[in-house]
């Protein structure tokens, strides 16, 4: 019989302990955040601003009760948020526009990270693409000075590229590749 137990991720989502966020790096690239640190980060970003009230209300009602990646206009209205409220939530960075009448849940300031991350990915892939045979020993790649655009560090970006299967790792007799 099939395993009917929920995965740990789905269980945490059902309990309202984690949220999935669309990162804007591709249609299937998602981030996973714990709800409490997410809530603290968002509130810290809007503390002392005129948007704080609407953001707090949105976190307490919509985010706490709806585990979806995005919100439709009807959902937002059902939670008691009008067009001006949505405009404030977008300006605060809590929502980003998905398409007309639909918004992704977001993290304020995430755009800076995503831009740096994308630049780092492109820079590291460019280094490998320009190398002979499109291969670079891992040890050499980690020892090199990071290419311009890789502010997050070669190791961080390299782990992402390997995990996303945009790069392949092959073991060789070179001890630096272990």
From TrEMBL:
One of its GO terms (molecular function) is kinase activity. Pfam families: Stk19. InterPro entries: STK19-like. Keywords: Kinase, Transferase. The keyword Kinase applies. GO terms for biological process: positive regulation of Ras protein signal transduction. Belongs to the STK19 family. This is STK19 kinase. The gene is Stk19.
């Amino acid at each position: 019989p099939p395993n009917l137990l929920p995965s740990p991720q789905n269980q945490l989502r059902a309990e309202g302990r984690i949220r999935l966020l669309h990162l804007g790096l591709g249609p299937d690239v998602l981030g996973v955040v714990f709800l409490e640190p997410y809530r603290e980060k968002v509130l810290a970003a809007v503390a002392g601003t005129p948007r704080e009230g609407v953001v707090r209300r949105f976190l307490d009602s919509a985010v706490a009760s709806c585990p979806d990646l995005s919100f439709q206009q009807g959902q937002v209205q059902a939670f008691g948020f009008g067009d001006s409220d949505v405009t404030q939530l977008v300006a605060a960075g809590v929502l980003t526009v998905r398409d007309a009448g639909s918004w992704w849940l977001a993290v304020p300031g995430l755009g800076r990270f995503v831009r740096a991350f994308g630049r780092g990915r492109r820079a590291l892939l460019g280094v490998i693409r320009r190398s002979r045979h499109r291969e670079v020993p891992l040890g050499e790649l980690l020892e090199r000075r990071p290419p311009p655009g890789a502010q997050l560090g070669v190791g961080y970006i390299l782990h992402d590229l390997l995990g996303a299967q945009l790069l392949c790792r092959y073991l060789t007799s070179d001890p630096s590749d272990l």
